[in-house]
Design goal:
23% of the residues are buried. By secondary structure, this protein is an alpha+beta fold. The longest helix is centred in the N-terminal third of the chain and has 44 residues. A five-stranded mixed beta sheet has the order 2-4-5-7-6. A three-stranded antiparallel beta sheet has the order 1-3-8.
Length: 240
């Protein structure tokens, strides 16, 4: 009888120990996820300082040309909008696709100003997608567009072109970004020297996977005709 009680006590102690370990592990994972969420919010508001400096410098140059005074107000409005949206993204993880495309449009127009129209761009949204209803993580696409401009079009004689397509695929939202710039062996480079932008995106996708139980990820590949292609798989989220 005593042996039976002893065995029962040991088994009970064993299961209690497992429960305690699982509880603390779950608590630690939640804390780690919260810290990662805070870090990602801070990262989203950190626009590239070189981009900000270049925009302000270019606006200063334009202000000295009397024929271009009308342009200044337009570009200042664009600049203030992307900075406001970057700040708002620290409070709101998700934004509508319509707002995200507006942010990207303003961002790319400023990049065109800085690079003296070094590239063109186009957006295409599948008719099945309602930009006002579908939501996605704020500022998720901007780092990939920035890579195309900074790395893909450097030294190119011909104007570059960036194409963004948004469409549903197998219950997920696929954002496909292509450019005709330098491929720069980015797939190989990404494995050896992952950029901070790619690392931040990977961390954000890890959080999305934990929240929505989806296999969110991105893929980089060289295009056969030249340039790069990025495919970003996100959860298909609708406004509640």
């Amino acid at each position: 009888m005593r042996i039976t009680r002893l065995v029962f006590g040991l088994v009970l102690l064993f299961f209690c120990s497992i429960l305690v370990i699982l509880f603390f592990r779950h608590s630690a994972n939640n804390k780690k996820r919260k810290l990662l969420e805070i870090e990602q919010r801070l990262n989203r508001v950190r626009m590239d300082p070189h981009f900000i400096f270049n925009v302000l410098t270019t606006l200063q140059i334009i202000s000295q040309d009397p024929k271009r005074h009308q342009e200044i107000g337009i570009y200042i409005t664009r600049f203030s909008k992307i900075m406001r949206q970057a700040l708002e993204s620290t409070f709101n993880e998700l934004t509508s696709l319509e707002e995200e495309l507006d942010f990207l449009s303003n961002y790319l127009e400023l990049q065109k100003l800085v690079t003296r129209n070094k590239f063109t761009y186009s957006f295409e949204v599948d008719p099945q997608i309602d930009p006002f209803e579908v939501r996605l993580p704020a500022m998720m696409l901007q780092p990939f567009l920035e890579n195309s401009i900074v790395h893909g079009f450097t030294g190119e004689a011909e104007p570059g072109h960036i194409e963004l397509k948004i469409y549903p695929m197998n219950g997920m939202l696929l954002a496909q970004i292509t450019d005709n710039g330098h491929a720069l062996e980015l797939v190989k480079m990404n494995k050896k020297y992952p950029s901070r932008a790619n690392q931040i995106t990977s961390d954000r996708l890890t959080l999305l996977n934990a929240i929505y139980k989806k296999k969110c990820h991105f893929e980089l590949a060289k295009r056969t005709g030249g340039g790069m292609q990025v495919q970003l798989f996100l959860p298909l989220i609708f406004q509640k």
